[in-house]
Amino acid sequence: MKTNALLIFTRNPEIGKVKTRLAETIGDQNALTVYNDLLNHTKNVTEHADCDKFVFYDSHVSKNDLWPESIYQKKLQIEGDLGQRMQTAFDSLFEMGYERCIIVGSDLFDLTKSIIENAFKQLNTYDVAIGPAEDGGYYLLGLKKKNDTVFLNKKWGTDSVYEATIKDLEHFKIAILPTLNDIDTFEDLERSGYNCKNIKINTNAEISSKEV
């Protein structure tokens, strides 16, 4: 019987296409380095989690990358806004027979294996598990059945997403997880404890070639 599935949403790590808000301050090369570090952290905290694991790429499925195919099943996100992409990913795994599905991004140095496992545990009792992010979004969403409402009519990437989602879930039993800091800006990166001392701040909006 299929029970727990973890969905990891990720961008293909290509220079100029990841962490663009962060790159405005530290340059594209540094932003790519930080993103690769985030991907490695996400892999390290998920690879031993007790669940089936799926990586959803944004542009193409990569072979022989940091996500070993012996551990992670690889899929491609559909076209559309973030809500449409998440909804379709959830639906596909529920259709495969999974009973509890949790999605996380790849933007958090604060994410831990215990947070993910606790979220699955909460879904034994609650209808939904959600992890709020400091910027007003969320870093984790866990469902036990299809719920299209939570993916509709959201201003993705803004500080209204978490509150709007909670409003949609007012008739459900919700487990709220610890609030974490996801990495979108240089200020987020500094708060994360990441070693920023060798990062060259890009005051003139020029691309820096100095690596982290």
TrEMBL record:
Entry-linked Pfam families: DUF2064 (PF09837)
InterPro entries on file: Nucleotide-diphossugar_trans (IPR029044), Trfase_1_rSAM/seldom-assoc (IPR018641)
Gene3D superfamilies per record: Spore Coat Polysaccharide Biosynthesis Protein SpsA, Chain A
NCBIfam families: glyco_like_cofC
Name this protein carries in UniProt: TIGR04282 family arsenosugar biosynthesis glycosyltransferase
Taxonomic classification: Bacteria, Pseudomonadati, Bacteroidota, Flavobacteriia, Flavobacteriales
